[in-house]
Amino acid sequence: MIKNYRDQEYLIKVGKRIVEIRKEKGITQEKLAELCELEVRQIGRIERAETNATISIVKAIGTALDVQASEILDFD
């Protein structure tokens, strides 16, 4: 069962932004997980907005993707 978070729409946008940046850089979920020292399943859940990632995880993803966390959180 997928939990529906209060800020679900925002989580969806963040997840899509991570996917967009990851694909632009040619990085797989597996490689991103390795770089962040996370499970692949966790990356997938974040990208699908099935979990509310901590600021620390967003920062780790940004570092792995060579972008500022603010770029992950900034979208139209």
Structure description:
- With 76 residues, this protein is mostly helical.
- The protein has helices at residues 8-24, 29-36, 40-47, 55-65, 69-73.
- Helix 2 (29-36) crosses helix 3 (40-47).
- It is globular.
- 17% of the residues are buried.
Q: Main attributes?
A:
76 residues; globular; 5 helices
Mean pLDDT across the residues is 93
Count of distinct strands? 0
What is the overall number of helices? 5
The helical percent reads 55-70%
Low-confidence stretches: none
Question: Beta-sheet strand percentage?
Answer: under 5%
Query: Which sequence of SSEs, written as H and E, runs from N to C?
Result: HHHHH
The CA-CA distance between the termini, in Å, is: 29 Å
- Characterize the biggest β-sheet: none
Rg is 11 Å
| Global outline | globular
Instruction: Give the structural class.
Output: mainly alpha
SSE layout and pairing:
Elements: H1 8-24, H2 29-36, H3 40-47, H4 55-65, H5 69-73
Helix pairs in contact: 2-3, 2-4
Task: Describe the structure concisely.
The chain has 76 residues and is an all-alpha fold. It has helices at 8-24, 29-36, 40-47, 55-65, 69-73.
